[in-house]
Write a structure and sequence with these properties.
Length: 183
């Protein structure tokens, strides 16, 4: 059975990124696609110990398994200082190589306070995932001025952005199934 892992690419509490992840989760589920949310804010503190590179703590297993058991990965990243959060790069580095992303479909959504909607971080992530031999879904969604579109309760009030997320998810599901015909 196929399953989309949706990564919330920050560990910032109450982030707009996570709010968008919850919208994507609802969209995928409305399409009949099972999901798992990978919330980097929930990473256990022991993951950040230097010894974790060689010996992954048991608390990291559910995060790793969410990626390894997925048929596709949808990364939602904010833009922090012109790039993506360090915790997202660390998470990628902690995952098993090469099987975590090798020939796995990956999709990107960028969230930003600024006017470009995290274009730079998404493009950088595409280079990293390309290096990891992932199958890159070409339709990206950039969400600029996100603070003016998301309520404190997490509701996305912009119908255009909601429509773009839905179109992206619909296309990504088809992409995943085309690449994984037995899923």
């Amino acid at each position: 059975m196929s399953k989309i892992a949706i990564i919330s690419g920050t560990n910032r509490p109450g982030s707009n990124t996570f709010k968008i992840v919850t919208h994507l989760d609802a969209i995928y589920r409305s399409l009949g696609e099972p999901t798992v949310i990978v919330d980097l804010a929930a990473l256990p503190p022991e993951v950040f110990l230097p010894a974790s590179y060689a010996n992954k703590p048991s608390g990291f297993t559910p995060f790793s398994e969410a990626i390894l058991s997925s048929s596709g990965v949808h990364v939602v990243t904010p833009e922090y200082n012109g790039g993506f959060p360090g915790v997202l790069k660390y998470f990628i580095d902690m995952l098993p190589f090469p099987e975590s992303f090798e020939r796995r479909p990956v999709c990107f959504t960028g969230v930003a306070a600024g006017m470009w909607g995290a274009l730079r971080p998404v493009e950088h992530l595409q280079a990293i995932f390309g290096y990891r031999n992932a199958y890159l879904y070409p339709e990206r969604v950039f969400m600029p001025s996100i603070g003016s579109h998301v309520t404190p309760e997490g509701r996305l009030g912009n119908e255009d952005l909601l429509g773009r997320l839905r179109t992206q998810a619909e296309g990504f599901v088809k992409f995943v199934h085309a690449l994984k015909p037995n899923s």
